[in-house]
Amino acid sequence: MLIAQGQGPVATAQLRKIFKGKMVAAGGFEPDTAEATVEKGDADLVAFGRHFLANPDLPKRIKLGLPLNDYDRKTFYTFDFHGYTDYPFYDQQRDGLLADPFCPQLHDSPFYFDSSRHAGAAQASANANSRCESKNKALVLEAFDTLFNKRDYAAAERFWSSDYIQHSAHIAPGREGLFNLIKSIPPTLKYEPGAIVAEGNFVNVHGRFSGIGLPVNWIAADILRIKDGILFEHWDVIQDEASRESSKSGLPMFGDKFGG
Ligand SMILES: Cc1cc2nc3c(=O)[nH]c(=O)nc-3n(C[C@H](O)[C@H](O)[C@H](O)COP(=O)(O)O)c2cc1C
Question: Atom 20 in ligand 1: which residue has the minimum CA distance?
Fold first, then answer.
């Protein structure tokens, strides 16, 4: 069945009606439409073509919600490596971010707000700020995944400043305080990020810590201050996750499902 540009995943829905075996769908999928198709049961797996070509680390980018490289149609079906093996991995781009001259230090102090500078800011500066905020969000997501899920302490040292300032009442000071806490938590620990917002060098991420060895999960709003492209200061607000029975609103505290 042919697909047109922008058309929904109609072929797999049609085929599913007659074919009940395992099905891999391909053609025109985006990460969100792929997920919806598998959730709906119209396919068991989804393959990516163009996005995979442009993103050698596509699974990681999708998992962490990182931005995708755009593909360049002009380099399709050509005979040298351009457009085949020279698209950057996210890590290569992130390393560029560490030296990014555009990440303004305007918001370095949580108590500092210079409205005159905001009012007079040129469009270029606004664009640079928005680019910086996207990168800061991606940095926090990758840092949290590295430390809490992969528990790769050596890699995590690249994300956390050796001068890390800790404000959480639950965590001992400095980078070591955080790393030692994670080392003391059972291997079942899992971190799931939810809503994430950034303003300048501040990032606020809502997330669930499960498998922490306590009777209930933690739902946390973590606030990070980024400095020189790495995590420099931290505050948090933590709540025990409510069950369906104990939630007065009747709604989950995190995402659209109650935690286990
Ligand atoms: C540069 C390029 C090379 C491709 N080569 C092949 C190929 O050798 N065999 C094939 O079956 N499909 C090939 N395809 C088609 C992809 O498999 C097809 O684009 C994909 O299944 C559609 O999914 P997409 O919308 O995620 O790109 C190629 C596509 C591109 C862009």
Answer: 49
pLDDT one-digit tens code per residue, 112-156:
344 444 444 445 555 666 778 888 999 999 999 999 999 999 999
pLDDT digits (tens, 9 = 90+) for 21-61: 999 999 989 999 999 999 999 999 999 999 999 999 999 88
In a shared domain, residues 86 and 154: no
Total number of domains in the chain: 2
Short-list 150, 128, 194, 120, CA closest to 60: 150
Residues near ligand 1 (Cβ within 6 A): 26-29, 47-51, 53, 76-77
Residue 41: DSSP 8-state:
T
Q: Do 75 and 204 belong together in one domain?
A: no
Beta strand ranges found along the chain (DSSP E):
24-26, 45-47, 160-166, 190-199, 202-210, 218-227, 230-240
Answer yes or no: are the C-beta atoms of 54 and 72 closer than 8 Å.
yes
Atom of ligand 1 nearest to the CA of 75: 1
Atom of ligand 1 nearest to the CA of 48: 26
Query: 80 and 110 share a domain?
Result: no
> Do 111 and 236 belong to one domain?
yes
- CATH for 175: 3.10.450.50
Pocket test for ligand 1, best of 23, 33, 50 (most atoms within 8 A of CB): 50
- Which atom of ligand 1 is found nearest the CA of 3? 25
